[in-house]
Specification:
The complex is a heterodimer of chains A (94) and B (232). By secondary structure, chain A is an alpha/beta fold. In chain A, 31% of the residues lie in helices and 14% in strands. In chain B, strand 12 and strand 13 form a beta hairpin. Chain B is globular, with a radius of gyration of 17 Å. Chain B starts with a helix and ends with a strand. Classes of the chains: A alpha/beta (94), B alpha/beta (232). At the A-B interface, helix 1, helix 3 and strand 3 of A face helix 1, strand 1 and helix 3 of B.
Chain lengths: 94, 232
């Protein structure tokens, strides 16, 4: 398999998928040692979603989450997608 | 089924590429594999890297990212319940639980037990006949795990799986080796097949990253253990 050089972070989960930059800093620090460039999908990088998290609309609508995935899949510069977390992919908690 | 899963069902990416993720992301990995033939990777979620997941987790990720898709599970010396408990410390690992001895080799699938079952029921995965199943479960307990294992073994073809490998449980599951041994021994479909557990994948650290679908070889003997694999 050819090396993965550019990874896009995406948030397909319906459940507190978004962490603030401060909360996620250790993950970026850890991943900083890996030989990849990281970029943020529209939800994975959208801070306003953090403020929305109260069990209401934590990581966008299903359509927005799907759009984030599609954008990453269609972007020719992206080698792989990396989900920010699991949980409630099947959820109806929004 | 959930909303995004239904949306995924109608989408075929033009530029298929691997996805890294675990737990409920098993569904995305199964969908990707079914729609495009691309095997993603059962890997820690990015946010799961926030709590010092250990050198073995990093080495495994680095290996995959640099194009080496071979993996092996040996039973690490230490483990940490870091995804469940932010304050958890590294502790001595019990090593691999060889619940039933035996040997097998063949195609495998790895994922969250419940989501693998969902993917199978949605028709995204072929039946499990002759597969080595590598499963893990997160929010579970002995009763729930036993019921869910029974359910997955009742799927068509699952009675003919070659072997079963189980990722390490979080402490909150309260599934110790003797408890799991009793559960496994009660499953008719697993009689005479190798079954091992307490392996380095799932919701505890360290996490070894593996292709979602591949080939694996398992040897589980009293004095010998080997579990290694690669992609198809």
């Amino acid at each position: 398999m050819k090396p993965i050089k550019h990874v896009r972070l995406v948030s397909p989960s319906a459940m507190y998928a978004i962490k603030t930059p401060e909360e996620r800093a250790p993950a970026f620090e850890f991943a900083g040692k890996l030989p990849v460039t990281l970029s943020l999908g529209r939800l994975a990088g959208d801070r306003k979603n953090v403020a929305a998290w109260n069990g209401v609309d934590p990581s966008g609508t299903p359509e927005e989450r799907m759009l984030e995935l599609r954008e990453a899949f269609e972007d020719g510069s992206v080698d792989a997608l990396w989900s920010t977390r699991g949980g409630a992919l099947l959820g109806r908690n929004r | 089924m959930g909303e995004i899963v239904k949306l995924l069902d109608n989408y075929k990416p033009r530029h298929a590429k691997p996805v890294l993720g675990m737990s409920d992301n098993t569904l995305i990995l199964a969908w990707l594999y079914a729609r495009t033939g691309v095997s993603g990777f059962y890997a820690p979620g990015f946010n799961d890297l926030s709590r010092s997941p250990g050198e073995r987790t990093a080495q495994s990720l680095e290996r995959v990212l640099t194009g080496d898709i071979n993996w092996s599970l040996e039973g690490s010396n230490n483990w940490k319940d870091g995804i469940v408990d932010a304050k958890a410390a590294w502790a001595k690992n019990e090593g691999v639980w060889k619940l039933q001895e035996g040997e097998c080799e063949g195609e495998y699938l790895v994922g969250h037990m419940g989501r693998l079952m969902n993917a199978r029921l949605m028709g995204w995965l072929p039946d499990f006949k002759n597969k080595i199943l590598m499963i893990e479960s997160f929010t579970t307990n002995p009763v729930v795990f036993s019921m869910e294992l029974e359910a997955i073994l009742n799927l068509p073809g699952a009675e003919n799986i070659k072997g079963l490998c189980i990722g390490r449980f979080s402490a909150i599951a309260k599934i110790a080796q003797d408890v799991l041994q009793e559960i496994i021994s009660s499953k008719e479909e697993l009689k005479g097949k190798p079954v091992v557990a307490n392996l380095d994948f799932g919701h505890t650290y360290p996490i070894v990253t593996m292709p979602f679908a591949g080939r694996a070889k398992l040897i589980a003997r009293k004095d010998q253990f080997l579990l290694e694999g690669t992609s198809l």
